[in-house]
Amino acid sequence: IHATMRYLTKILLFFGICGLLAACDELGWNPLDTSEATRIAQMREGTVPILLQIDVPTLTDGASFYDEQWDRETDILKRRRTWRGPPGNDVSASLLELRYKDGTPMGEAPSPEEATRNWDILAQRNLVFQDLYSSRNAVGPILWRRFTMGPNICVSFAQGYSPDGDIPTRHLLGYYCAPAGEAFSDGQAETVVRAIRVQEGDPALSPDG
């Protein structure tokens, strides 16, 4: 009961922000769905808090929004953080972690191009993808591709990982878009994907847990 009330309090605050930024539409999430709050409270039992972070200066002064969804059809927990830049800077980014609660292997991660389908703001646009690259960050190996979306140059990325073994039990997907009209090179894109960080296990790590 307490977990449900905490969740409802957080989503009502988030809904107020969504009314200003229309972030709820992008996330495809209905914060007034109390049945979803109940499902999430049940899903959180036995799970650990998580911190999803991209450590780049361009996101430091912006706002970030966190949400969780329980996909009843696939039985997958989705935990997502989305960033918007400060006023006058339309930089944007998002990280999405997917997992089964019981630790069932997730299989191979989608391609960076396929990963963009998880965000309406990307899925509904004409994206022009560039070369595919492989790098490594603190989480593990990661695939990424730059793409253009109108006046924005962005990068999408995807990786599978497991904290306890070699078989991926989580997928980590995301994107980052530089401000409209600004250059965003392969080197800058790789800096972003190498700055991705995931921490879990200690409630002090994240206000989202």
Features:
209 residues; 7-stranded antiparallel sheet; single chain; 6 helices; alpha+beta; 25% helix; disordered N terminus; two-stranded antiparallel sheet
Summarize the structure.
By secondary structure, the chain is an alpha+beta fold. It has helices spanning 2-21, 23-27, 34-44, 112-115, 120-123, 186-194; strands at residues 50-54, 63-71, 76-84, 92-99, 128-136, 141-149, 152-161, 170-177, 196-200.
How would you describe the overall organization of this protein?
The chain is an alpha+beta fold and 209 residues long. Helix content is 25%, strand content 34%. The protein contains six helices and nine strands. The chain has a seven-stranded antiparallel beta sheet. A two-stranded antiparallel ribbon has the order 1-9.
From the N-terminal CA to the C-terminal CA, the straight-line distance is 16 Å
Characterize the largest beta sheet: strand count, sense, and whether it forms a barrel. 7 strands, antiparallel
Count of DSSP E strands? 9
Order of helices and strands: HHHEEEEHHEEEEHE
Give me the Rg, rounded: 17 Å
**How much of the polypeptide forms β-strand, as a percent range?**
25-35%
Shape: globular
Strand order within the widest beta sheet: 2-3-4-8-7-6-5
**Which class of secondary structure composition applies to the elements?**
alpha+beta
Average pLDDT works out at 82
| Fraction of helical residues | 25-40%
